Amino acid sequence: MPGMVDTHAHLPQLPNAGIGFGLDLLTWLDRLTFPTERSWSSVAVARRLAPGIFEAFAAAGTTTVLAYGVIYEAAMDAAFEAAEANGIRAILGKVMMDRGTYDPTIEPAAILDRSLRESADLIGRWHGADAGRLGYAVTPRFAVSCSAEMLRESAALANATGAWWQTHVSEDPFEIAEVRRLFPEALDYVDVYDRAGGLGARTVLAHAIHLSDREVARLVETGTRIAHCPASNLFIGAGVMPLTRWLAAGLTVGLGSDISGGPDASIFSVMRLGAYAQMARRSLVGDEGPILEPLDWLRLGTLEGARALGLEDVIGSLEVGKEADLIALDPASVAAMPGPADDDPTDLVSRFIFRAHPDMVRAAWVRGRRLARAGRR
Ligand SMILES: [Zn+2]
Q1: Ligand 1 mean position to 166 CA, how many Å?
Q2: pTM of the model
């Protein structure tokens, strides 16, 4: 089947995957995330860890990943070099933050200029590399970590260079309250990014859980894309997106592992958690409308993810004229009993989602080239 498209992950956080359950977002960042990312100030650490991180994504069946890196330029070169060697399709960005940065050695007043210059240099080296297999996303962390000026200048850089622009929106109630305090002039969280010129078809916003009708309408109007990360949202306890309402409103939504807010790089796991979460909404909140079925979830993890990145003409499905980003799955690994494998496609997809097994992905290819994968013969 087509390879999975992960529209939201944090590369350096993979070693933390599976720990930190129940910490609220801002505590989790301070206690786990920032110290881990700070370790990539050593380019030797980045070079040592990055290859295994892409191998882990490939082993999970992910052939395209849109990911955040760290604030260090040299570490981002190491990450791009590892993606280049692995063969995976990767859109990466150096994290930008001029408020509460985790690097105390940089003078706060110098951060904005330096971060823009380093991002522009990385775009020059990597955006569109290997005939478009590698790409760059200008990456202001989120409104809490960025001044209005940094948000504005980063969006201008993305617009001027054709790079993507990625950040987080409306994940957790404490975060939303903090954004309201920091940006009193804005109508709401989405308006903070709107005022910065950050909305549009090249923008991917992660989470988008607690949106008002006005915010949803504005995201639809501007063609802004959403990365839905249900495994992370349940792990951190951020909330449960009203996905069927957002889809009915016309939002373009892909799936994200949000490693390591989410504990698993597998988009199949993300589909399973997402399906359960939507079922829980139906019984607890009374959501109505059609139930998303296994093939709907598969589409979100592949073709809709490609659409979220504007790559639906290139990847996301098996069609003549697209580039061959493929995975091979072993039906026996998810079978309920030994014996002949299930050959009904819908049932098979259902089992890959609801009985996902760590070893079920046997191989992954991008443009027909086999990817290096973690821990596999
Ligand atoms: Zn994230």
Answers
A1: 10
A2: 0.97
